[in-house]
Q: What sequence folds into this?
């Protein structure tokens, strides 16, 4: 291990300051922190809370209902990443829709969906465009490619989200955020730096054991200074400006909109939708979908988990009726979901 | 003769006989393979082990092997896991109409070469041809008979606290190879399957000591799945040392890119061995001196705590539960 990592570890293990709640926003962080056993290093007064940074988890049931509607009522081929297939909608998941005859195609990239549309000219093809700033550029690129190829049968059902508004909405839930390194690689860090002025603290964090330990050590040190702070602990990938090419692509094709997050409700300006110039590629407008108000299983506490208001163990369904094999809530479906990580790695029991 | 397999090749008439003579007999020739309805075989001295396995891998040809080699290795290795010297195999083919004869020859030739290496005779077989689209290229089922070596008592419920857990080589290569051979990810990497007949390594171990508790080949579901199976069957836990698990750099690279864990990728030439601590070093030394197991390593220890669980000691020395395998990572892999 590197010298910096050893130092970080010593800071973490010897921390004797006040209680701290640190929210790891990103689902990949949740997963890696469990996989690396990093919770085992933390003193008892430091709590890691899993936040809303898994795109599958924060996608509300109404979005699944819209996708099901496209597949069953509009005869559209729904292309999607695999995780979303099993996320429950109000009445059924996409797997359920598939068993009733909907065409649901699992792809590994939005560009695969464009290829599918090109190869299946007689079908209408919609890609389920979920994700944060990291994945949104690829979704925009898919539209740009489809547009260049003149594909009239390709569209996106958008549920793209942006993180900075969520940090503000979650301000009271945590004392500091582990900011998602992949998102910041695209966006740069200006938004997170500006949040310091509003009393929000956080550190941009990478994904290896030394990077995560260093970010945590910085939070433990800086929070003792008694004022809000920001630091970039992932400088090998994240710059202040971010990826200008990706930012420009998204700005050309998309504009901000209000968005509904599972667990957090509607957050103004936290979503992205296609601009009017690209309305022909927007499945909602193309197929004139009605507004859908989806409903979750009332006993499922995914919403509280995503806000950091409870841990998966506090949910009455967790590990009993809700397991990775039979998920009730989205957080158990996704490989990045907090419930799935707690279930797979045995929570904090070891 | 036509250059593809036709429905008539499976109809039992002249063309069937022609296919058997020119392809199967030409490669599998041995004194026990006759034109009669069943092979008549000498009885071995010890108890016999018998097993059967179906192979439907997609694609049927991949770097380092093909479905034919796989169909011999899979069954031979299942016998070897029970401490049985493989003696005889039967094979049953279901071939899709239109499958190129040249490719069939390659499959059969690989089976013959692998059988020779494993010291096993192919003594009976069957061929059926199915209509186009009814099977994916070809399916092969092999059944094997072996003679259990005296003094061995290998079983999945025989792991004991204190045992060392050994792998016979680096893990996850077959699963990774098939994943890339499907060409769905646009990733090029120089990965070849580990597919190999493993009676040699098993014999080398058993010649060193008969005190080996469990041998299991880490096929579908990979090493992680086998560890959970044995932990459950033996009511023990396995403490796995993440840093000690051998993984080829190219497999590691592909896995990092795709977010996969090599512990759950299939192996077709790598086994998991549980042996008492006092013989573990000798077992590893014997394996390392034998073909197909030069990369053998101790990867963990068996304990009585947390029965049924696999606990991983991470790269930073913390402990975490190895996630339970949740099902097929890839269908049609072997």
A:
């Amino acid at each position: 291990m590197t010298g910096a990592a050893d130092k970080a570890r010593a800071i973490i293990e010897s921390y004797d300051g006040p209680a701290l709640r640190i929210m790891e926003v990103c689902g990949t962080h949740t997963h890696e922190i469990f996989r690396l056993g990093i919770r085992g290093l933390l003193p008892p007064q430091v709590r890691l809370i899993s936040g809303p940074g898994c795109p599958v988890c924060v996608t509300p049931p109404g979005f699944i209902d819209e996708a099901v509607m496209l597949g069953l009522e509009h005869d559209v081929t729904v292309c999607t990443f695999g995780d979303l297939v099993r996320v429950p909608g109000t009445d059924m998941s996409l797997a359920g829709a598939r068993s009733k005859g909907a065409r649901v195609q699992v792809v590994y990239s939005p560009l695969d969906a464009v290829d599918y549309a090109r190869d299946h000219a007689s079908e209408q093809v919609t890609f389920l465009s979920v994700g944060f700033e990291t994945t949104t550029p690829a979704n925009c690129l898919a539209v740009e490619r489809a547009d260049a190829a003149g594909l009239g049968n390709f569209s996106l059902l958008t549920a793209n989200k942006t993180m900075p508004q969520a940090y503000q909405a979650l301000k009271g839930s945590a004392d500091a955020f582990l900011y998602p390194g992949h998102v910041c690689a695209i966006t740069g860090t200006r938004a997170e730096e500006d949040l310091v002025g509003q009393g929000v603290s956080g550190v941009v964090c990478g994904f290896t054991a030394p990077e995560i330990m260093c970010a945590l050590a910085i939070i433990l040190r800086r929070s003792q200074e008694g004022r809000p702070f920001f630091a970039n602990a992932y400088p090998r990938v994240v710059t202040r400006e971010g990826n200008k090419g990706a930012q420009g692509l998204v700005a050309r094709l998309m504009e901000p909109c209000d968005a509904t997050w599972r667990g957090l409700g509607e957050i103004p300006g936290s979503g992205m939708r296609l601009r009017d110039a690209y309305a022909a590629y927007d499945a909602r407008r193309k197929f004139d979908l009605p507004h859908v108000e989806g409903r979750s299983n009332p006993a499922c506490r995914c919403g509280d988990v995503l806000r950091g208001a409870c841990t998966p163990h506090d949910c009455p369904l967790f590990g009993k009726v809700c397991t990775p094999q039979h998920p009730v809530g989205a957080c158990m479906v996704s490989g990045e979901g907090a419930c799935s990580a707690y279930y797979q790695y045995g929570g904090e029991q070891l | 003769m036509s250059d593809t397999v036709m429905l008539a090749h499976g109809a039992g008439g002249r063309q069937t006989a022609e296919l058997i003579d020119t392809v199967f007999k030409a490669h599998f020739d041995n004194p026990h393979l006759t034109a009669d309805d069943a092979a008549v075989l000498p009885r071995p001295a010890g108890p016999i082990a018998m097993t059967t396995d179906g192979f439907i891998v997609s694609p049927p040809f991949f770097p380092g092997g093909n479905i034919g080699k796989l169909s011999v290795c899979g069954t031979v290795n299942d016998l070897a896991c029970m401490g049985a010297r493989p003696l005889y195999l039967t094979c049953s083919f279901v071939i899709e109409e239109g499958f190129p004869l040249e490719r069939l020859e390659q499959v059969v030739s690989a089976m013959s070469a692998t059988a020779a290496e494993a010291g096993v005779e192919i003594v009976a077989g069957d061929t059926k041809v199915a209509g186009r689209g009814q099977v994916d290229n070809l399916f092969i089922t092999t059944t094997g008979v072996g003679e259990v070596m005296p003094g061995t008592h290998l079983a999945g419920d025989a792991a004991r606290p204190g045992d060392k857990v050994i792998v016979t080589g680096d893990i996850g290569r077959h699963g990774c190879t098939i994943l890339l051979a499907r060409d769905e990810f646009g990733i090029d990497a120089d990965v070849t399957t580990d597919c190999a007949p493993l009676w040699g390594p098993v014999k080398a171990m058993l010649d060193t000591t008969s005190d080996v508790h469990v041998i299991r080949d880490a096929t579908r579901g990979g090493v992680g799945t086998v560890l959970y199976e044995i932990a459950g069957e033996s009511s023990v836990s396995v403490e796995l040392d993440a840093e000690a698990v051998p993984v080829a750099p190219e497999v590691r690279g592909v896995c990092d890119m795709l977010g996969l864990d090599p512990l759950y990728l299939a192996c077709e030439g790598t086994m998991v061995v549980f042996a008492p601590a006092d013989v573990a070093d000798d077992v590893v030394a014997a394996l390392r001196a034998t073909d197909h197991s030069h990369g053998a390593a101790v990867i963990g220890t068996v304990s009585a705590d947390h029965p049924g669980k696999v606990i991983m000691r991470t790269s930073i020395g913390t402990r975490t539960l190895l996630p339970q395998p949740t099902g097929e990572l890839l269908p049609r892999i072997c």
Notes: The mean pLDDT of chain A is 92. The two ends of chain A are 23 Å apart (CA to CA).
